[in-house]
Design brief:
Layout lengths: L1 E3 L4 E4 L2 E4 L2 E5 L10 H6 E3 L2 H9 L1 E7 L4 H9 L6 E6 L8 H16 L3 E5 L3 H9 L16 H14 L4 E4 L7 H17 L5 E6 L5 E3 L1 E3 L5 H18 L14 E4 H4 L4 E2 L4 H13 L8 H6 L1 E7 L11 H16 L6 H13 L14 E2 L4 H11 L14
Parallel strand pairs: 3-15, 4-15, 6-7, 6-9, 7-8, 10-15
Antiparallel strand pairs: 1-4, 1-5, 2-3, 9-13, 10-13, 11-12, 14-16
Bound molecules: guanosine-5'-diphosphate-alpha-D-mannose and magnesium ion.
Length: about 400
């Protein structure tokens, strides 16, 4: 893969936010020495290097009642050496959608000779393991894991840690194009190969996010991401005194982290999760508030924003869904101790303009799940390690 080199990096305390890097070539050919002139502007990430990272990476796919055909396409796009972890919150009552997902995954693993894990978010054993791991606040009053994409992501991270993976990447189950999924994951690996710090994050920016309205229009920005980015940038600008537009991936559902970083970040519930990750990094490592993780601060946290070549096509879930996503994301910025009155005002203005909030209302503080720390992983593992096989997709072949 050929990818633009980091041309510009903005620093916020010990956080390094790299400006968007474009993918230039999906396949960069055989390994040859790069002429020095090219190396100044372009990183050629060799196939073997990408494979080394893929081997150490788990791809977590959160899914809730998506079309089976889409799910089938998504898993086919995950490079062979990655471990697939599916966390499903799909219906099990009238139609057992989870079972259909599990069967699809089993068949896929059988014929492609690969390993995958699949678990239901409401699994009773999982709930017990989370309680043991001091994650009782992720459970509802019936003792089951709460609904939410973010909750699914945390479960995926714990399963990845249990499987000894060093990197985790997220891919939504409603992606239409397997080729896009493939590219996202290659980009995760390319990003990690460029990282100097073991605490790294890669966020995907879509080149286009087309809309269908009679004919296809290749939109670049959705309204939710544009607004979220604006508010995140406002927060950084006011803190530093220099206006910036460095954040372009505030809502990136498609993103990846080194396990070292994943273990020290808290995660907001639901759709606040992606902007909250950035907020948590700024709070912890931005230098304005006291730091807890000295070693990580010494290495610094590196954020890569990589622009894919494939357009992003996914299920459209309607205006209410978008308003809710905007509200949840902006609420995470609004309630940060870093958020000053000017950015707060801006958030309220945006939410009113997009009718995600009524006059006089304030965004509700999102629930924050604590970091999947080493200790939590240890306790989760104590309970789950012997049972891990029962979540293997291959075991389910009947
Ligand atoms: N396990 C689990 N549990 N998965 C869920 C849940 C849940 O409660 N709710 C949704 N999902 C799955 C969906 O099936 C999908 O695969 C993925 O999480 C994303 O959810 P969508 O509902 O499709 O969100 P979206 O497409 O509107 O938004 C996505 O992109 C945004 C950026 O544009 C999400 O990834 C957002 O988090 C992201 O900010
Ligand atoms: Mg979606």
């Amino acid at each position: 893969m050929r990818i633009e080199r980091q041309r510009y990096t903005e620093r916020f305390g010990s956080v390094r936010i790299n400006d968007v890097q474009k993918v230039l070539e999906l396949d960069s050919g055989r390994k040859v020495d790069l002429p020095l002139k090219e190396a100044i502007a372009v990183s050629k990430v060799e196939e073997a290097v990408i494979k080394d990272f893929e081997e150490k990476m788990a791809i977590i796919i959160p899914i809730k009642n998506e079309k089976l055909k889409l799910f089938e396409g998504v898993i086919s796009g995950v490079p062979h050496d990655c471990l697939i972890i599916v966390v499903s919150n799909s219906e099990r009552k009238q139609v057992d959608r989870f079972r259909m997902e599990r069967d699809t995954l089993s068949q896929f693993c059988h014929f492609t000779q690969r390993q995958a894990l699949i678990i239901h978010q409401k699994d009773q054993i999982l709930a017990e393991a989370l309680a043991q791991a001091d994650y009782a606040d992720m459970l509802d009053k019936d003792g089951k894991v709460k609904d939410g994409k973010s909750e699914g992501m945390i479960i995926g991270m714990l399963m990845a840690a249990l499987s000894q993976k060093k990197y985790i990447g997220f891919v939504d189950a409603d992606n239409y194009f397997p080729g896009a999924v493939w590219e996202y994951i290659k980009s995760y690996a390319a990003g990690f190969s460029m990282a100097k710090s073991p605490y790294a994050m890669v966020r995907i920016l879509w080149r286009y996010k087309p809309k269908m309205s009679g004919e296809v229009y290749f939109n670049k920005w959705g309204r939710v991401s544009e607004t979220t980015n604006k508010c995140l940038n406002s927060l950084i600008s006011i803190k530093s005194g220099f206006e910036t537009d460095i954040v372009k991936t505030g809502n990136a559902g498609e993103h990846a982290m080194s396990m070292k970083l994943a273990q020290i970040l808290p995660y907001a519930s639901g759709y606040a999760v992606e902007p909250q990750e950035l907020i948590s990094i700024f709070e912890e490592f931005g230098g304005a508030l006291p730091m807890t993780y000295q070693t990580a601060a010494k290495h610094g946290v590196e954020i890569f924003q990589i622009e894919s070549r494939n357009p992003h096509f996914h299920e459209e879930k309607g205006l209410f869904h978008l308003q809710d996503m905007l509200l949840q994301g902006l609420a995470s910025i609004y309630h940060s101790p870093l958020c000053e009155p000017q950015t707060k005002q801006r958030i309220i203005k945006e939410l009113l303009a997009q009718e995600a909030l009524k006059p006089g209302e304030k965004p509700v503080k999102p629930h924050i799940n604590s970091a999947p720390s080493k200790e939590k992983i240890r306790n989760f593992a104590k309970f789950m390690a012997d049972r891990l096989d029962s979540y293997s997709a291959l075991e389910k072949i009947s």
